[in-house]
Amino acid sequence: MAILLSYSERDPIPGGCNLEFDLDIDPNIYLEYNFFETTIKFAPANLGYARGVDPPSCDAGTDQDSRWRLQYDVYQYFLPENDLTE
Prior knowledge:
Elements: E1 29-33, E2 38-42
Antiparallel strand pairs: 1-2
């Protein structure tokens, strides 16, 4: 079974405001961890735009029509320690 979802020009582009990582548009999540902490790094999304049009600037204002209107929710889930049953 396949389900097709069409995106419009108003949908956000994950990783579209990448200024830190190697790809121009980088939707990946990078995890770094040690014994004490886990760090999550990701490039922020940009607002959607039509094909053939220049993308909106990532640093233009903080009003409701800029990428700053996008919100991110981060969830944390703890797995049972030393439970290798699955």
